[in-house]
# Entry
Amino acid sequence: MLNIEEGKIKQFLQQNNPYALGKLLREIENRPESSHRIMRFVYGYGGKAHVIGITGPPGVGKSTLIEKLAGHWAEQGLEIGVLCIDPTSPFSGGALLGDRIRMQNLTESDRVFIKSLASRDAGGGMPIYAFDMIKLFEAFGKDIVLVETVGTGQLEFRISEVADTVALVTGPGTGDAIQTIKAGIMEIAELYIVNQSDRPGSEETVRDLKMMVSESVGKRWVPPVLETTATKKRGITELSEELSRHKKYLESSGLWQERRRERNRKFFTRLLFEHCWQKINKHINHDQEIRDKISQVEQEKCDPYSLLHEVLSATLKIDG
Ligand SMILES: Nc1nc2c(ncn2[C@@H]2O[C@H](COP(=O)(O)OP(=O)(O)OP(=O)(O)O)[C@@H](O)[C@H]2O)c(=O)[nH]1
Ligand SMILES: [Mg+2]
# Structure
């Protein structure tokens, strides 16, 4: 397993090439604790990308759409990063194949970098280091970062917590998808895409989605409903235009900054929580006295609050 030393990290960041990016992404994936060393430098490099979440039920064509969108933008000279979380689709071939997977029709291009991630550690959700990986893409000068997730809505770390714009992809005849959105199970999106519009039932789905969206008329951003046939590149230009329109909306309304601040704060809170818990847990495992007291709490012989204060002052030096 890799263990990149600090000098190397700096060198990789300065190199700013796909090889270096791949190395750092792999290091974070294989040894999440190395984020601590890597990310301290990464923040100095700045960079701002439009982070776009592409989410939706399995098999609706998310990967195909991403492939076409990335190709479209690469032709315009933009730099793209793609993060596929728990991919099962044909183009990614699963996370096992390695990091830089060539998309079917995208010519070998240094403008597009694809990273596939298994979400094994996050119970099907988004691993905490996905956030770091997006930052890394930004530091390597990506203009756009596309993040693919299967939108079950039960993700531990929801796509809206890392993306500026969330696009929800459905297929024709997926009335169920609309029900799940309405029930709040599926993520609320800024853009709805009915892909596979070459298949029957597309018009009805578009109509249903438009009806759902019409409830938000009067709001400052009304989510557009788009029809695409990713395999034939149909609707890709329109989709790309709507995505940049949303970015402009975020910027002009001040929401871009506001959301990023909130995202950074949430990430820090989560980091703090995870690390405090790890520290406390480690302490508890090594402290027989506390373990005995926990067993007293179990038997209601000791109250949990007294123990809480004791544990906090012993582990975090915090006066409970
Ligand atoms: N007919 C038709 N098929 C499509 C279209 N877009 C994608 N497909 C096909 O649908 C299948 C699934 O596409 P993917 O892009 O892998 O879908 P996905 O949503 O990424 O799937 P998961 O990552 O497994 O959730 C593939 O066989 C694609 O070729 C489309 O617009 N029309
Ligand atoms: Mg996919």
In short: The chain has a mean pLDDT of 84. The longest helix spans residues 255-286. The pocket of guanosine-5'-triphosphate (ligand 1) is lined by residues 58-64, 87-90, 150, 195-196, 198-199, 229-231 (CB under 6 Å). The chain has two domains: 46-253, 267-315.
